[in-house]
Design brief:
Length: 225
């Protein structure tokens, strides 16, 4: 999908209540971009994939159609809480920010929720004594991207903390066996764990994420006896 840069307003964000998917009518939360013809699509930019066409939720659409749902290109750092009210949409995309701010309602900005912070985990001595440790993953809902995170980061998404983009990710936690008498058997157990998570959440790609390293971090049991 291609749009001239001068005709799009990229990197907008909604916490919900303003937009929905045009086909499924499901409420949409997350990043989107807007065209100069007042069309809305999921993703920060037209190059993002997959692109889903969006539309205003009816109770919002019945208001002034010349209002912007969200403010100007504050991009990834800021999200306006109030709409611009006096600049017509057809001219908005070609006007400088200074003009808009001086001719609009007072804009209040809050820092948008952030993406998850990836971590590279490794088991501790205590974990080896226990024979396993817990692993925490977040899966992007619209792609097969899995991110391993710490328990602290995982809890922010699990408890739907407003500081993070919890609505864009599926939370997964599972035990990972790291000791035993047979590396192959340990790998088989971990493989079944991954397959079980895929089945439970009706997703794919978690098994592939490990690239057949199902006995990752394995150490023979006799090393801890």
């Amino acid at each position: 999908m291609y749009f001239p840069k001068s005709q799009i307003k990229p990197s907008q964000f909604t916490n919900g209540g303003e937009l929905r998917e045009k086909v499924t009518k499901n409420e949409y939360r997350g990043y989107f971009f807007q065209t100069s013809t007042n069309l809305f699509y999921s993703g920060k930019y037209p190059e993002d994939s997959p692109i889903i066409e969006l539309e205003r939720i009816p109770q919002i659409a019945t208001g002034n159609n010349n209002e912007e749902l969200f403010g100007d290109e504050g991009a990834d750092d800021f999200v306006p809480n109030e709409p611009v009210s006096v600049v017509e949409e057809t001219n908005y995309f070609n006007l400088p920010r200074a003009y808009l701010e001086s001719n609009s309602t007072v804009l209040r900005y809050t820092k948008p929720p952030r993406r998850p912070i990836q971590s590279y985990v490794s088991p501790t001595k205590t974990d080896y004594e226990l024979g396993e440790f817990q692993r925490y993953f977040l899966k992007r809902i619209n792609s097969n991207i899995y991110i391993e995170v710490t328990n602290t980061e995982y809890q922010l998404f699990l408890t739907k903390n407003n500081k993070v983009q919890y609505h864009l990710y599926i939370c997964m936690q599972f035990p990972w066996i790291i000791t035993g008498r047979d590396r192959k058997k340990v790998g088989e157990i971990n493989y079944k764990t991954l397959k079980g998570k895929e089945k439970k959440f009706k997703v794919i790609g978690l098994v592939k994420k490990f690239k057949e390293k199902y006995s990752q971090f394995f150490k023979a049991l006799n090393e801890w006896e």
